[in-house]
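Dear colleagues,

For the upcoming journal club I promised to circulate an example of a predicted protein-ligand complex. I picked one with phosphoenolpyruvate because it came up in last month's discussion. The inputs are reproduced below in full, followed by the predicted structure.
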Amino acid sequence: MIVAANFKTNLTRLETGEYLGELEGMLPKLEGVEVRVFPASSSLVPHKGQAVVGAQNAYPAKSGAFTGEIGLVHLEEFGIETILVGHSERRHVLHESQVDIAKKFDFFKENGFEIIYCIGEPLSVKEQGLDATLAYLQTQLEGIDLSYAKLVVAYEPVWAIGSGLTPTLEEIETIHDALKRIAGVKLLYGGSVKTDNAKAIMELPSVDGVLVGSGALKVENFFSMINDAITIKKG
Ligand code: PEP
């Protein structure tokens, strides 16, 4: 089970360092549960512990003339080897195209990163039904090497992110089950995961963990979700 926190544009470097310190102090020895924390780029910190720090985004180049971006050298400085690619806010707020996203995927794949690759449909697509939703999600897998061993897919419906709305458990399981057949990789669910729904979501057979945004900003809440993951035994 993977339990991941995406801080988005929240928590300074100081706050991130304090958060990680507190989290490590709370964690029992983890077996079968992996923890990922994705701070803002300017809050990346060198970190050794059970929680693995990853990048929310980076430009697909070692370094160069890409004003405002960070590249591979900036991640290497902190020993970062895991990255989010295709997050809904990168797609819909920052207008990254599928071609841009696939290039980013390829670059970080070539550099051996674990890639948490995010996909998710907007409300207008969800309203067209399951077939339309699955067809849309498949367009977000175009150009992505699904056989990459360090690929994890996060299914995050756009309408559920930061909205307090979530699909029903049945809807999550239906989509994850279909995605398992298409992609055959570990699958996280993301979108308004909180302390009160995380366990039920992680218990679903086709769910391998959660990617949590605002619900993870308080360390005690993130820890509670990790604890939920620890209690779940799947065959
Ligand atoms: C996310 O940022 O990946 C996310 C799922 O956000 P939230 O939990 O706030 O909906």
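Two points we might discuss: The domain at 2-231 is CATH 3.20.20.70 (TIM Barrel). The CA atoms of residues 87 and 179 lie 17 Å apart.

See you all on Thursday,
B. R.
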